[in-house]
Amino acid sequence: MDIAALPNPYDYRNPVRDASLFAGRDDELAKLRYEFGQAAPDRPSIYIAIHGRRAAGKTSLLNRAEAIAKECRVLPVRVDLVPGDATPVAFFRKLYEELTTALARQGGPDAPPGAAPAVVRRVLAGGTPPDDFPLEFPESLALSARSLGAVSEPALRADLEYFVRTLGRPIALLIDEAQLIAGDENILSILRALGGRVPGYVFVQG
Ligand SMILES: Nc1ncnc2c1ncn2[C@@H]1O[C@H](COP(=O)(O)OP(=O)(O)O)[C@@H](O)[C@H]1O
Ligand SMILES: [Mg+2]
């Protein structure tokens, strides 16, 4: 057999998506499985950091984390950062949009009521919230964006609590390229405060 004639299943330019092409990392996968298995709406949130050089396999492992979360009935929310996301307003807007979009995609009785992504985006952009709008953070963020003020941790906390409560299961926030926010003390302190006070979340940073 001429192996040069076979298609190479490995794509060195792109992170691995397919579980059958993902090699090794048994300890890391076991750790993720354990933590997602422990997650519950009323259990304290946890943080997992995936460290590694460029091309070490962080994004590929984050892809596996997404699949493992689903197996464990944890809702995965992917947040892929780009350089423009490295300010508190931009970062929390992106996190929030990805979160509300993932929740809405659940559909059916699993989706929290009143948080349609189009409405959320309109309020984030400064639109007036509808009367029955159950969320605090979009209007609060629009105000901070306008006044260059601080992002409101209590408003974000109220909504994160609302999401887990109405969803009835835990949520994993999977943040790729997290090194982009590693130098921003404002972002990190809000994330730390949230993790310490809102139950039911798993934060994974790659
Ligand atoms: N567990 C793995 N099994 C097989 N290939 C891998 C694995 N992890 C990474 N790779 C390969 O290495 C390359 C870099 O991985 P990636 O996840 O993009 O790294 P990082 O996000 O740390 O820069 C990918 O294109 C992929 O082909
Ligand atoms: Mg990567």
Compact overview of the structure:
The chain is 45% helix and 10% strand.
Task: Please give the structural blueprint.
Blueprint: H1 26-38, E1 46-49, H2 58-71, E2 75-80, H3 88-106, H4 117-124, H5 137-147, H6 153-167, E3 171-176, H7 185-197, E4 201-205
Parallel strand pairs: 1-4, 2-3, 3-4
Helix pairs in contact: 1-2, 3-4, 3-5, 4-5
The protein binds adenosine-5'-diphosphate and magnesium ion.
The site of adenosine-5'-diphosphate has 20 residues, from helix 2.
Plain-language structure description:
- There is one protein chain.
- This protein has 206 residues and is an alpha/beta fold.
- It has a single domain (24-205), classed as 3-Layer(aba) Sandwich (Rossmann fold).
- Helices cover 45% and strands 10% of the residues.
- It contains seven helices and four strands; from the N terminus they run αβαβααααβαβ.
- It has helices at 26-38, 58-71, 88-106, 117-124, 137-147, 153-167, 185-197, and strands at 46-49, 75-80, 171-176, 201-205.
- A four-stranded parallel beta sheet has the order 1-4-3-2, sandwiched between helices.
- Helix 7 (185-197) links the parallel strand 3 and strand 4 (201-205).
- Helix 3 packs antiparallel against helix 4 (117-124), helix 3 runs antiparallel to helix 5 and helix 4 runs parallel beside helix 5.
- The longest helix has 19 residues, at 88-106.
- The radius of gyration is 18 Å and the shape is globular.
- It starts with 25 loop residues before the first helix and ends with a strand.
- The relative contact order is 0.19.
- The mean pLDDT is 91.
- Bound molecules: adenosine-5'-diphosphate and magnesium ion (MG).
- The site of magnesium ion has 4 residues, from helix 2.
